[in-house]
Amino acid sequence: MRRALAVVPLVACAVAMPSAAWAAPTTQVIQGDVLRLVSVADWDAAAGLLPGAPVQWDVAVSADAPDPGIVRIGVSARGNARLILDVALCTRPWDGATCPGGATTLRAGWSIPRDGGEVPLTEIADTETAHLRLAIALDPADGSGSTDVRVQAQGAGETVVVGPGGGLATTGPAPGTLWAVSAGAVLVAWGVVLSVVRRRRVGTDAGRGS
Fold first, then answer.
1. What are phi and psi of 27, to 5 degrees?
2. DSSP 8-state class, residue 127
3. Where are the beta strands (DSSP E) in 65-179?
4. Which of 22, 71, 137, 200 has the smallest C-beta neighbourhood within 10 Å, fewest atoms?
5. Which residues contact 1 (CB under 8 A, 6 or more apart)?
6. How far, in Å, CA of 184 to CA of 203, rounded?
7. Are strands 83-90 and 130-138 parallel, antiparallel or unpaired?
8. Confidence (pTM)
9. pLDDT tens digits, one per residue of 155-198
């Protein structure tokens, strides 16, 4: 039996996300036995990230479970470069910069913790799809060093993780162990320039946006 999970309070919001770089996005699909993450972002734009000029990252989370259940969605980071995130949730696919029916703000102007621990964002029923939109920017106060950022979903005994260069679906290990085994990528910030180090991709479908 699945444990009940605390739901992070949500704030209704119909405001569009901050303007973010979105020129030539790449689509990555990470498919587990039950969970599916579809990640879309322009990681080439991330190579020139500057404070005040965030990169947009969309992650759609869905499930195909045999029994009713809950999917927990969170984000984690590890490193010493401070990053500022805005995170919004749409229950329908984003239409450009807006969410049909209004978005829910999960985080705004948030300095993400960098201790590697998962920070819960929200929960959905496994019959729903969460369309997350993250805007990631360097903190102008300190953009040096490096920081790993990942979005992860857990449900039905499975954990699926995605980062800028790919992702991993696994069953069994606790979420903390995924830092050692996942095939995600690293956001590396040197001064005020963010470069993306690409690693092995899992289930990647590279494409170019219009």
1. -100, 130
2. T
3. 70-79, 83-90, 103-111, 119-125, 130-138, 146-155, 158-163, 166-171
4. 200
5. none
6. 12
7. antiparallel
8. 0.72
9. 989 999 987 666 777 765 444 444 333 322 233 332 222 222 22
